[in-house]
Specification:
It contains 22 helices and 13 strands. The chain is 51% helix and 11% strand. The structure holds iron/sulfur cluster. The site of iron/sulfur cluster has 14 residues, from helix 14.
Length: 488
């Protein structure tokens, strides 16, 4: 993981800020809901989608069991195709390798296709320090680069930006003639990026998968910018996390079906590129192809049997779209490169427990992420394990102040819960008290302490007008009344 993250406690400030930004919340809510719904429709069309998920899970587990073997096989396959493999144990090493390749190619400019590993290792900062211009060519990444931000979502980096935001950014940095028409904005980006593709000496990409038996890098996209980045410049560099391997070409058939449907609800993305070595005689493409295999905490995670399942992730983003916490606070509030449920796991695994100790607690453990994960990662289970690890290895300093009231409230709660009469009385009082606060079955704004602090950033479900026992009694009476006496 790169060196930019947040300090302990900052996640609360970021989340609080996000929860008071109504415009931002609406942008996240509508976009994640759209992706979530598209996914539902797309998987409904595939008979036996569950079987496909199981197959994907099995292949990923097989890779992790024999990662050493597959990595060596991949290296030999790439070299057989005249590509070069570089091994980077840390993010810094990976950045140095990339900068050195760019220097040797005597290039001043690099066109970058979307790569989350590049974000993870702070590659843009490293390029800048080396005097190299890195231009993001994915439209979403291009937008967040103009805004000097990080991607807000694994799949949709500019998910938090409205059309107006993009129009303002383009007018300020790209073309002063302001427009909000999406087609015109896209045309402006295309014009600017075409010039960058023509100038750049090096193209840099990530990899969705890397096939061990053939040494093939697989990248999927909808815009065509990855094809340009990997074929137009003289040199192509692929940054690949070591967990991205799949053993055989035939496994791709499983993962391509899973990934596009889970990410954007498409059957397949518009472009699927399989890159096997530099160009051969009579072909288009780069003269050199370099693959940088990045560890950066992955091998440490692999050694931890309880946590290694997290390395199965194929970065589809479905768990982010399903997560009620991510939908509310968005990606930047997590403070690191990877947000959402899977980010709350892989960030502490890659960056170390201490700097990211609060992330595993940023979850309601509702399980929606597990239900949508195409490779069936048990995310809530991993979050609980990480929480236990944090408590053992890096316990939080003893809280001061307000938790006294919290402890008293918990004691009172426990006392009531053990006494049926007190429980019934408390429920009656609460039902009576909430009458002045409920709006459409929710308590949305309450001024008095402690409810006020809760409803400042989220809604509280109101108590049902009748308790379960009351309803049960009424229904039982009704059923009894309907029954006909049995004649003898
Ligand atoms: S954990 Fe599963 S759902 Fe989330 S991004 Fe990874 S593969 Fe997709």
């Amino acid at each position: 993981m790169g060196e930019t993250g947040i300090h302990s406690g900052e996640i609360h400030e970021l989340a609080h800020k996000a929860m008071t930004d109504v415009r931002l919340q609406e942008a996240y809510r509508s976009s994640t809901l759209r992706l979530y719904t598209h996914r539902l429709h797309a998987i409904a069309e595939v008979p036996g989608f569950e079987k496909l998920r199981e197959r994907g899970q099995d292949v990923k587990h097989e890779v992790l069991e024999h990662l050493d073997v597959y990595l060596e096989q991949f290296e030999s396959s790439v070299e057989r195709n005249r590509g070069q493999v570089h091994w980077a144990s840390t993010g810094r090493e990976a950045c140095e390798i990339v900068c050195e390749i760019v220097r040797r190619a005597q290039a001043r400019e690099v066109v970058k296709a979307k790569t989350m590993v590049g974000e993870e290792i702070d590659l843009n900062q490293a390029l800048e320090s080396a005097g190299i211009l890195g231009v993001e060519t994915d439209l979403g990444e291009f937008i967040v680069q103009l805004a000097h931000e990080r991607p807000a979502h694994i799949v949709a980096p500019a998910i938090h930006k409205t059309r107006t935001d993009v129009a303002d950014l383009f007018a300020a940095h790209v073309n002063p003639q302001r427009t909000e028409v999406p087609e015109h904005l896209t045309a402006i980006a295309r014009q600017t990026l075409r010039q960058a593709f023509a100038r750049a000496g090096v193209g840099l990409s990530g990899a969705n998968f890397a096939v061990a038996e053939t040494g093939t890098i697989v990248v999927i996209e909808n815009e065509g910018n990855i094809r340009f980045s990997t074929t137009a410049p003289r040199v192509h560099i692929a940054l690949v996390g070591v967990e991205k391997l799949v053993p055989r070409m035939e496994d791709l058939a499983v993962f391509l079906r899973l990934l596009a449907r889970s990410a954007t609800g498409q059957k397949l993305t518009s472009y699927t590129s399989l890159l096997t070595g530099p160009r051969r005689a009579g072909e288009d493409g780069p003269d050199e192809m370099h693959v940088v295999l990045v560890d950066n905490g992955r091998i440490r995670a692999l050694a931890d049997e309880g946590m290694r399942e997290a390395l199965c992730c194929i970065r589809c983003g479905a768990c982010l779209n399903a997560c009620p916490v991510y939908r509310k606070i968005g990606g930047h509030a997590y403070g690191w490169v990877y947000g959402g449920p899977i980010g709350a796991i892989i960030t502490p695994l890659f960056a170390g427990l201490e700097p990211a100790r609060e992330l595993p607690f940023a979850s309601s453990l509702c399980g929606a992420c597990r239900d949508v994960c195409p490779v069936k990662i048990n995310i809530p289970d991993l979050l609980l394990r990480l929480r236990a690890k944090v408590q053992q290895e890096s316990p939080a300093p003893k809280p001061k102040g307000s938790p006294v009231t919290e402890r008293m409230a918990m004691r009172l709660w426990a006392w009531i819960m053990k006494r049926p009469l007190a429980y019934t009385l408390a429920a009656h009082l609460a039902r009576f008290g909430q009458r002045f606060l409920v709006e459409e079955a929710w308590i949305k704004r309450a001024s008095m302490y402690p409810l006020g602090r809760w409803t400042e950033g989220r809604d509280l479900p109101a108590l049902a007008p009748k308790s379960f026992r009351q309803k049960f009694k009424e229904i039982s009476k009704g059923v009894g009344a309907d029954r006909q006496p049995i004649s003898s």
